[in-house]
Known about the structure:
By secondary structure, the chain is mostly helical. It is built from 15 helices and no strands. The chain is globular, with a radius of gyration of 21 Å.
Amino acid sequence: MFKKASYALTALALIVGLWGLYLRMTTGHLDVNYGTYVVWGLWVAAYVYLVWLEVGTLLVFTSLNYVFGWNKALASIKGLVYLTALAALTPALLLIALDLGHPFRFWRAILTPNFGSPMAWMVWFHVIYLVFLVAKLVLVMQANRNPAKAEGINKTLKTLAYISLPFGVALIITVGSIFGVVSAHPLWQGSVLPLYFLIYSLVAGSGLVTLLYTSFASAEPLFAETTEKLGALTKGLLAFGAVAVGILGLVTLYPNVPAQAESARSAIFGSTWWVFWVLHFGLGVVLPLVLLIVAPKAKNAILAASALVVTMLAGIPYILIVPAQSFGMTAFTNAFTGEGLTANYTPTSLEWQVVVLGLGVGLAVFLLALQFLPVRAKEIR
């Protein structure tokens, strides 16, 4: 029943999203609400969220499985982890490509990069990380097909995991740096933003690893113990992330420097206040922490908490990116009016349709690979 519902949801998302893709390819950027002042909207926010999921999942899994020696407990889901990361990366690249004015010129950033720009580094780190990710997924499938060769393949996987780990950290910090170096937007500018991107990616990654293990590894002998440990890890990282954001908010609002303080207030108390306070803080922080504190050993509580952490984190990139661009543009919007010359950004139906397309593509990659490729170890089938 769940499998049929997943395929139906994926098909519906693709149908809705393909219409949005058609409109984007035929009308360009005419039917979107980002423009001269708010240049990065829903698609960029969704891209950032998916990168947090992709990189965070791999960082958490690699650290636990190889650095901290959880290999006996987590090894059975490594194929699922790599597949999930690929399923997050694919729509992320699709969305950021469609946000570009000329998406088919992406190759220029690879062949003729300007390494003085963080975006060039981001593209290169994406390419390198994608190569590592695909290589690891292929090796896992080979090991699952031929268990006799698994020992040698696992040694290669371990080597690739160690090599790719710093590239993952570099990628997420570089994505944060793209915003952190923009001095025109005080809420972004500063050295702390890339570190917060890393923290949020680890929170998202711990939630997704916990969700995958709890959902797919119930036959494992260490399932109960590992689920409890993953729940504790998610609880700790979530609490740490909440404290870190609280400290950042305090040091931003307390001095009351107008540019920074007003920009921050517009993000968390403005028209998108409910995204932060209801979706993220209420459903994505408080409720998961309550579940993990009250029922730290209950599978269903850990499953629900991890799912809430992963899904409710999606709104954070939006309130971080959009209000910061809207703040301080009153003089410009009063002086000039016309298409694209507004600081009041709300995503159009086309923008939502393209995001739904990304969701459908990610689900299709995950479900089809799960169905037809030897991604899962035989023990957890």
